[in-house]
Design brief:
Blueprint: E1 26-34, E2 48-57, E3 60-65, E4 70-75, E5 80-85, E6 90-95, H1 96-119, H2 125-134, E7 139-143, E8 148-152, E9 156-163, H3 170-188, H4 196-207, E10 211-219, E11 225-234, H5 241-252, E12 258-259, H6 262-277
Parallel strand pairs: 6-12
Antiparallel strand pairs: 1-2, 1-11, 2-3, 3-4, 4-5, 5-6, 7-8, 8-9, 9-10, 10-11
Helix pairs in contact: 1-2, 1-3, 3-4
């Protein structure tokens, strides 16, 4: 399984109305590392898988992955994503309803795969991982002194360190975006994990009104999986952030961009992933 695709776990949808927090400027810089490195390596020296910059501005969320030269714009009030790939100069739009239709098909195929394998008596480690994605069964524990959540399933374990939000509505706004992005990445990247485990973690964070500072995922697969996402939260933009947003908005209005369907965008993304893996 390609670990580079696991940054999507960074990553039930909250159908919430727009609040004051949606208009608040928030900046989150995320670093995802592979902690399944040789023994003795510290977390800070572990290989970086992805870095993302997420900017909340004027009711929209701009999420930028520099290595992919891709910006995703989420509009919660319209339940819609716009995806721009700067390298390929392509853009597409997709609604959350469409994403969930795609996701339902993927989950249906997953259940068929699981049922067929069980009928044939297969005892594969991958089946446990697949079942975990389709129906996680977590034992949840919480340490209020450290604001630490632990969710343990037979096949995987989440550990999240949280912090209190600076104002009301911030947790809801962020987790609405995080849930929607987890669903999007599951259909955009075919090798990405399904979103249900991450949605359950987000729900636990919501119940305790915590923003994630660090999230770790461990799983027993053919090769060890241990990923960590660290989120650096700031409540004021840096000098270049508005320039980035202005530049992305300008590109999105560029008539020379290749405007394609979401299915085409997905196919081109998969083709690029396959090329990088060779």
């Amino acid at each position: 399984m390609d670990r580079r695709r696991f940054f999507s776990w960074l990553a039930p949808l909250l159908v919430a109305s727009v609040t004051a927090a949606d208009a608040q400027e928030m900046r989150i810089y995320t670093t995802v590392r592979n902690l399944a490195a040789p023994a003795g390596e510290s977390a800070e020296r572990s290989p970086v898988i992805a870095r993302t910059l997420t900017l909340f501005h004027a009711g929209k969320v701009y999420d930028y992955v520099d290595s992919a030269k891709e910006v995703t714009v989420f509009e919660p009030s319209h339940h819609r994503f716009t995806l721009l790939n700067e390298r390929r100069r392509t853009v597409t739009e997709v609604s959350q309803d469409e994403i969930r239709q795609f996701l339902a098909l993927v989950e249906e195929e997953g259940w068929k795969r699981l049922q067929n394998a069980q009928k044939q008596g297969e005892q594969l480690r991958s089946l446990g991982w697949l079942k975990f994605q389709l129906k996680p069964e977590f034992q949840v524990s919480f340490d209020p002194a450290k604001s630490t959540l632990t969710l343990v399933d037979r096949s995987a374990r989440y550990k999240a360190e949280g912090q209190a939000p600076p104002s009301k509505g911030v947790v809801e706004s962020y987790l609405r975006f995080a849930d929607a992005t987890a669903e999007l990445n599951s259909v955009l990247h075919p090798r990405a994990p399904l979103p249900k485990p991450r949605l359950q973690l987000n729900d636990e964070l919501l119940q305790r009104q915590l923003l994630p500072v660090s999230v770790e995922l461990e799983a027993s697969l053919d090769a060890p999986l241990h990923l960590q996402a660290r989120h650096e939260w700031t409540w004021k933009f840096q000098s270049t952030d508005r320039q980035l947003i202005s530049g992305w908005d300008k590109q999105l209005n560029d008539a020379t961009l290749r405007r394609i369907t979401f299915r085409q965008y997905q196919q081109e993304s998969l083709s690029m992933e396959v090329t990088r893996d060779r």
